[in-house]
């Protein structure tokens, strides 16, 4: 999973700059599927709640 700053950057490049998925992929050095997933997603991903292990 990408850091929130990377996800926000992808959304910014897609929505504000109008870059294509291919351009985002090349700019950020990520897979095109990852770029598409976060660029076209309307909501931010939910944070996972970690359970403490042990007593």
Structure explained in plain terms:
There is one protein chain. This protein is mostly helical. The chain has a domain at 4-40. The protein is 53% helix and 0% strand. The protein contains three helices and no strands. It has helices at 4-15, 21-28, 32-40. The longest helix has 12 residues, at 4-15. The protein is elongated and about 50 Å long. The chain starts with a helix and ends in a 15-residue tail after the last helix. The model has no long low-confidence stretch (mean pLDDT 88).
Throw out a few tags for this protein.
single chain, 55 residues, mainly alpha, 3 helices, elongated
Detail the topology: elements first, then pairings.
Elements: H1 4-15, H2 21-28, H3 32-40
Helix pairs in contact: 1-3, 2-3
The poorly predicted ranges are: none
The radius of gyration is 14 Å
Largest sheet: none
- One letter per element, helices H and strands E, the order comes to HHH
Q: N- to C-terminal separation?
A: 29 Å
Q: Judging from the principal axes of the Cα atoms, what is the shape?
A: elongated
Class computed from helices, strands and strand pairing: mainly alpha
Mean pLDDT level:
88
- Number of helices, where a helix is a run of at least 4 consecutive DSSP H or I residues: 3
β-sheet strand percentage: under 5%
Helix content: 40-55%
Q: What's the count of strands?
A: 0
